[in-house]
Amino acid sequence: MKIITRKNCMRIKKKRDAGFTFVETLAVLAVTAILTSQIGVAAHKMIQKARVSSAKTQIEQLKISLENYFADCAAFPTEEQGLSALWEEPVLYPLAENWNGPYTDKKIQKDPWGSDFIYIPKDSVRATDLPKGVPFGLVSLGADRAEGGEGNDKDIVSWE
């Protein structure tokens, strides 16, 4: 018969509490995975907000460039000339005689989703989309790269 002493009891307890069990390790991994996924979702939402904000900023910069073009040339670029007229002097009729560009500091960039901005001059076929009194429109199609949409897919327009 073995006598259990206090010293023996402490040794047994230390061996039992020496490490994590498999179930405890799985629980920690599960909690870590849940928290990581939540961070990923939040980061994705922040990235989408940043893209929308970037597109709005780019549209505002293009509006200013178009207004400067108008101040020099007394007309906005035609639909055929497009936004490239802000970077390079147009060679398509009507020629901009007083062109004093470039009106942007670099070539016209694509929107944050990789699509070209849509330029809608007042005399364009698509000008019916513009509110009354707006001389031109700029559109980014959003994340879906198609007209319309809601949320992240919503078009970003210069007149709103």
Summarize the topology.
Layout: H1 6-16, H2 22-73, E1 118-121, E2 136-140, E3 156-157
Antiparallel strand pairs: 1-2, 2-3
Describe, in plain words, how this protein is organized in 3D:
The protein has 160 residues and is mostly helical. The protein has a 3-stranded antiparallel beta sheet with strand order 1-2-3, with helices on one face. The longest helix is centred in the first third of the chain and has 52 residues. It starts with 5 loop residues before the first helix and ends with a strand. The mean pLDDT is 84.
Write a brief caption for the model.
The protein is mainly α.
**Rounded average pLDDT:** 84
Strand order in the sheet with the most strands: 1-2-3
- Termini distance? 89 Å
Would you identify the regions where 5 or more consecutive residues have pLDDT less than 50? none
For the secondary structure, the number of strands is 3
SSE pattern, N- to C-terminal: HHEEE
Query: What's the story with the biggest beta sheet?
Result: 3 strands, antiparallel
What is the count of DSSP helices, taking H or I runs of 4+ residues?
Answer: 2
Structural class label: mainly alpha
Looking at the structure, what is the overall shape? rod-shaped
